[in-house]
Amino acid sequence: FKGGDTCEYLLSSGRFLGEKVWQPHSCMMHKYKSSEAKNCLIDKHVVFLGDSRIRQLFYSFIKLINPQVKEEGNKHGNIPFEDKSASIKVDFLWYPEVNGSMRQRIKSWTESSVAKPHIIVAGAATWSIKIHNGSNEALAQYKINITSIAPLLEKLARSSDVYWVLQDPVYEDILSESRKMITNEKIDAYNEAAVRILNSSSRNSKAKVKVFSVSKLIAQETIMKSADGLHLPESSRDTNAMILMNVYCNKIMKPIDGSCCQPQPPLTLIQKLAFCFFSLSIVGYIIISVIHRNNFRKNKSCTDLESGEEKKPAISTPNVSTLEMLLHSFCKLGLIMIYFYLCDRANLFMKENKFYTHSSFFIPIVYILVLGVFYTENTKETKVLNREQTDEWKGWMQLVILIYHISGASTFLPVYMHIRVLVAAYLFQTGYGHFSYFWIKGDFGVYRVCQVLFRLNFLVVVLCIVMDRPYQFYYFVPLVTVWFMIIYATLAIWPQIVQKKANGNCLWHFGLLVKLTCLLTCIYFLSYSQGAFEKIFSFWPLSKCFELNGNVYEWWFRWKLDRYVVFHGMLFAFIYLALQKCQMISEGKGDPLFSSRVSNVLLFISVVSFLIYSVWASSCKNKTECNELHPSVSVVQILAFILIRNIPGYVRSVYSSFFAWFGKISLELFICQYHIWLAADTKGILVLIPGYPMFNVLVSTFIFVCVAHEISQITNDLAQIVVPKDNSTLLKRLLCIAGFFSGLLLFSAMQDQSRH
């Protein structure tokens, strides 16, 4: 697709999503709050010049700065507005016709001694049509007048932002008798004249008057709701004011969800170094591949004409094979990272705002559930939360979360609360899985820790470098990383209590419960002591990992939101493994987990608990209050689901291979969606194929899933190379990794200095 100025798209094209949400063509529009508008317009002077329609736009604009403003004052006179706290001046100047008076006012601003407004919004025509009864002579005079004004506007455009607002259509059926001569045919003729004259005049000029034609499109959809047929309804003019704010402020404020009018961010030093590294990897891999291919041809087995036997080719040495695998992995990763950058940093592909409807969320949910049930297979083992089952659980949860993100369902509180349970369930599995491993295996070696940390963090570290984002931005990975280290520390600190030791003496079980109680106490203390929590994570270099927008509040909020669920996962694992050891549960194929009576009672309680939680979550009215209760009650639905899924033997013996496949790459899917499925760091939607929303989602989803799967394989391949089992080799690699991160911190500090 050819490139284009997103400002032009914002000012000239778009469509409605639903009734009130305006979607500009190819880019995302930020919804400015009063504080943001003031920060953008501080010490600025804005002038609206024109008729009653421009006055409407003026009022909508100043309400973005101060929502308390009332539409008072002389309708056919000048109206001043000033916000002294931010030194903002916004004036409406009554010039209902494009005539000599308007020309004189504009000319006065072009004189060097006069302070020029920073933004000028002008437009008029309906009064000329009304006063002169729609005569052709009035149109001819309008053309003459706007031709004389155009050079002055261009001169102003060299130092100010100048916008000419085209005339909106009217709803002729309800126009008053005194306005019947204002027809859409006449308005089109005046608009055509203004566009032709302004465009032809600006061809030879460096500065350009921006034609604000998007209001015409908005009016075509909403003018039927007009009270008098001439003036736009309030929601439409508010949209126009928001577009104006985006055009001017996006390049200043740089909001994440406001891609319109934002220039492409310059490459940082770290990004340039990453580009060089991946380029060298690609070149290196090509060279080695060519050398190997030539060697293969030379050593290719040839048939012995006398004996008819084949000679086996020489086998490559392991060192070359490892190097080739390393370069091959980085080569693929480099190409994938280029795609990431093009999707979410370069202004190459389009981005659009999300728009939530119930159908956009629930229909895909039903669709994937049907697919999941269709791919049902028998499990290899029938234990509670066996590997296939946990992969399946991760898979369907991840697919639901993806649909939640792309549909913008976070605006619907009942859905938000249920998704919070799914995120908590991931953390529950973190507690359950890692506790079970350490308890059963008793392996607290460095190799295990490094393997887990590498697999969790590799992709995120690469994205932090390539996409120039802080580590905390990908909040879920820091969350599971910290919780893994907490689980490890809890169990590894003396006395190390594992299943083998506890089987010999039951007192060790009590000792482990003491450890878990201490952990719960620490969690409780930190959750109610924000100051202590922030002090711990504000120390350098921890602060570099957990700060977002200059503070660690976001990290504290994310940690606090699911603070107990990992502990619940650990406790559940302990109880389950104890029951399993005492042979109090039956895990045979097709057998219920407990006796028939106990199983039925527990199953009934589980279903009721599951439904009660859903009813409570669906009746939530206040997100803050519900978030406060969520850490304590989310475990109810998680445990209910586990029991429903595992008590009946026939349910425990099957799993969905469709969901399990996605579960194996769930972490990669969660992280990759930020940039190559969603856009603008999850705030919008990536548009590869404009104009065809369903086809676009299919294509972008296919690429996204393939990329996530490929990255999963790359991570596994590199984990074997970077984290070897040999302790002495591993120590050397750890020193290299420490050097790498030291260099990264140094370059990051240099970047921060240059930015300031």
UniProtKB/TrEMBL annotation:
Alphabetized InterPro entries for the sequence: Cas1_AcylTrans_dom (IPR012419), NXPE4_C (IPR057106)
Domain NXPE C-terminal: 22-92
Spans through the membrane: 273-291, 325-343, 355-375, 395-416, 446-466, 473-495, 507-526, 561-579, 599-617, 659-680, 692-711, 731-750
UniProt-listed Pfam families: Cas1_AcylT, NXPE4_C
The EC number(s) this enzyme carries: 2.3.1.45
MF (Gene Ontology): N-acetylneuraminate 9-O-acetyltransferase activity
CC annotations in GO: Golgi membrane
Source species, domain of life: Eukaryota
Keyword Ion transport found: no
Domain Cas1p 10 TM acyl transferase: 253-734
GO biological process: carbohydrate metabolic process
Places the protein is found: Golgi apparatus membrane
Keywords noted in UniProt: Acyltransferase, Glycoprotein, Golgi apparatus, Membrane, Transferase, Transmembrane, Transmembrane helix
Catalytic activity: a ganglioside GD3 (d18:1(4E)) + acetyl-CoA = a ganglioside Ac-O-7-GD3(d18:1(4E)) + CoA; CMP-N-acetyl-beta-neuraminate + acetyl-CoA = CMP-N-acetyl-9-O-acetyl-beta-neuraminate + CoA; CMP-N-acetyl-beta-neuraminate + acetyl-CoA = CMP-N-acetyl-7-O-acetyl-beta-neuraminate + CoA
Membrane topology label: Multi-pass membrane protein
Family: Belongs to the PC-esterase family. CASD1 subfamily.
Protein name per UniProt: N-acetylneuraminate (7)9-O-acetyltransferase
